[in-house]
Amino acid sequence: MKVSDILRVKGGTLYTITPEDSLADAAKMMADNDLGSLVVISHGLVVGMLTFREVILAVVKNGGSFGATTVYRAMDNGPLICTTETDIDEVRRMMLARHARYMPVINNRMLMGVISFYDVAKTVVESQNFENQMLKAYIRDWPEGKEPAAS
User: Considering only the top CATH level, what class is 3-140?
Assistant: First the structure.
């Protein structure tokens, strides 16, 4: 299964922000749209990722307020990225290794979407449920008088 399979089901709504925007505006956009992340875009290119984790760290560092902090000062400027052709198992490994909850999907320097750890987990569970149903149907329809070969 590939990242493109997740994006096809998820849809194409993207939320982005620029490095020059204020962190307060970014947090408001995240709250208003129930988002855990924003992709940071500059001159048409992905330059970073802002998640609730970076927002909280920046606010704590600033004594509990946003102050005049910009997105640039808070964002992760080296986020994990993948392509639409990246295998889901590879995405899981990458996200687990870096404790990443969100990953931009980029093809030819163009932002295609964002996948979350939730999206990946949901896809894996649905795939496993389908496989379980197929195996149960196979076992239930086993021809009478034919025993499986002993191992």
Answer: alpha beta
